Amino acid sequence: NTGFQAAESMCRSTPWSSRHKYVHPHARQLVAIWRFYLILLLAELSAAKSLLDDSPKTVCETEACKERAKMMLESMNQTEDPCTDFYEYAWGNWKKNHKIPDDQTKIGNFHILDDKVEMDVKTVNETEKFNDLLKLLKEDGFTKWPLRNKEESPYKNYTQLLNISTFVPFVSFSVYQDAKNVNSNVIYLDQIAFDWVGRNELINQTTEDSRKIVEAYKTLIASTSKVFRPNLTEDEAKQLSEDIVQFEATLAEHSKAEEDRRNFSSMYNEMNISSLSKKYPKIKWLKLFNSVFALANITLNESERVIVMEPDYIQDIEKILETANISTLYNFVFWTSIRTYGAVASKKLDKLFFDFYKEASGVKKDEPLWKKCLTKISDLITHAIGRLYVDKMFDPKAKKTMDTLVDVLNSTFGEMLQNNTWMDNSTRKEAMEKLQKMVAKIGYPSWILNETYLNGLYEYVPPVFMNYSFLNVLHGLHLNSDIQELLSLRKPYKKEDEWYTGAAVVNAFYNPMTNDITFPAGILQPPFFQDDVPSSINMGAIGMVIGHEITHGFDDGGSQFDADGRLRNWWSESAEQQFLERAQCFIDQYSNVTVKEVNLTLNGRNTQGENIADNSGLRAAYLAFRKFNDTDEVLPGLNLTGDQLFFLSNAMVWCENIRIERLRNDVQYDPHSPAKYRGNLPIGKFLPSIFFTCVLLQSWHAYEHTVR
């Protein structure tokens, strides 16, 4: 499921100085294409600009327009040349006036809006009971932690450990919609994620930045172990942390990087438990699955289907488990459970966890307790929170306006597909069918207003009493979430009822397996969306977001799914080859952008889907604005045309200040490029220089250099 936010430039390589030097064929093709489009676009926009210059401007005088004009004026750095750095021109003063809060890794309009939504739903319980954590861990099969050696282990081998514990952190289990049989759900078996210390840092611990994070992680493990077992010596605690981190690093070494996990067909390996057991016989899969599904009173047999997403990883796991020390396995499993609940179990553990986060992320102080607790439960009660938010904060008029905007963007994107010159007719027909079947979900699902339905989502939450700790509540919510997911295996998948996100969320989404785009209530407010402002403002912001999400249906990921959400190749061989060549151009360009602050290049492969969506989404929004805008209404006090306001409104989406530690992490792992590049690079391709009287030939000459 592709989110718009978060934590993205067209083919820049080493500048050339001689026409006799080799030019990559992708670059030659791109230069030719863009020269052709430049001539057409120049003709259209010059004509449009001359018409606009001669026509009277209507100044919007609504309160919303006055507020927006004030916001823009306060944010702009009008001393900056927009031809040189449009992002700095649009929001240079915003960056100066918005320092990163001490408890945050970055600040931007996404995060400011997130904070606003969180304040609207703030309700927390600050009770603390460390013994509750010990009790929960004991129920999961862990009577003591950490173990000093294998002689202390209550389990003789990894098979016993897997069969007794319902918590299995070596592999990832999930139940979700079947990518090829979209009306049913299926079990997915996958590699684990590395959320605490990144995969790159675990594998390569030789760089200064990697060592810093890994050492902080080891310190956290060692310090936590002494909270649970105070008589542990410093050397024993240190050795324990070394063993756990080394084991986690071994898992990372046998996993795949996310940029190598973009071909979903190669990750759809259908088996049943019987064939799974024959292929990977050292793990008792039927017992393992049944120990997990016992939570929902479901018993599986060997004919149960399983989609294995990374067969090589599963094969390697067998060998890793067989050779690992049982005490290391036990300690690792216990540790991963502590990571989930430890910070809310005691103030001492909370401080240890923050000390690690401070070192890894660069924050200066901890979040308020209410915010920390809300963050932990919000995903578990997302629709309950959404109901509260919608009742008090959502204007129903926004949905009507959004319906119109989505229709306009859908129509414009359809024209882009029809005018596409490299897509053959059979592929274009499939693409148009997919666009026509794409469903827009706006604001909130209607069923959250049905209290019976809403209560059913939390049916398995145990009774909560006033003397319960927050930990008890959190565990109960996790329990309900797990049971609901497991039960879905025996239920049909109804995509009309599926909402990937809650209403009180500042983001937008495309889901390829349901072929729908979602715009929660949380994002339908300034600076993304606002009633009573010129169309340039909404089109540049939420219009681009809509175009972005529509594009995801046709990017390198979404293009692998058909109109009904099935994983199916609907592309002709020639169209697929043409698409891959164009996608490679984005990959090459972004991969050659160096983020100087952290001395890393962008990961063009991992970000290609978001880069395609950013560029095509902006193009669709601008074309829609030019086609459907019947007035050139402007803002008071700003000597800017509707076109200029469109691009400024778009830039407002991306204004952000970010800490170096967070930037380094985002460049390595986030499928989105950093905000600065998402703000500057797509806009550069749509020639804002025309509207800001830049010297066009110089601008294009520089662009040609980046392409070559």
From TrEMBL:
Question: Which cofactors are reported in the record for this sequence?
Answer: Zn(2+)
Any one GO molecular function term: metal ion binding
Domain (Peptidase M13 N-terminal) spans: 119-445
Q: Where is the Peptidase M13 C-terminal domain?
A: 507-683
Please name the Pfam families in this protein's record. Peptidase_M13 (PF01431), Peptidase_M13_N (PF05649)
PROSITE patterns reported in the protein's UniProt record: NEPRILYSIN
GO process annotations (BP): protein processing
Cellular component GO terms held in the UniProt record: plasma membrane
Q: Which UniProt keywords apply?
A: Hydrolase, Metal-binding, Metalloprotease, Protease, Zinc
Concerning its family, UniProt says: Belongs to the peptidase M13 family.
Mind telling me what this protein is named?
A: Putative m13 family peptidase
Upper lineage is: Eukaryota, Metazoa, Ecdysozoa, Arthropoda, Chelicerata
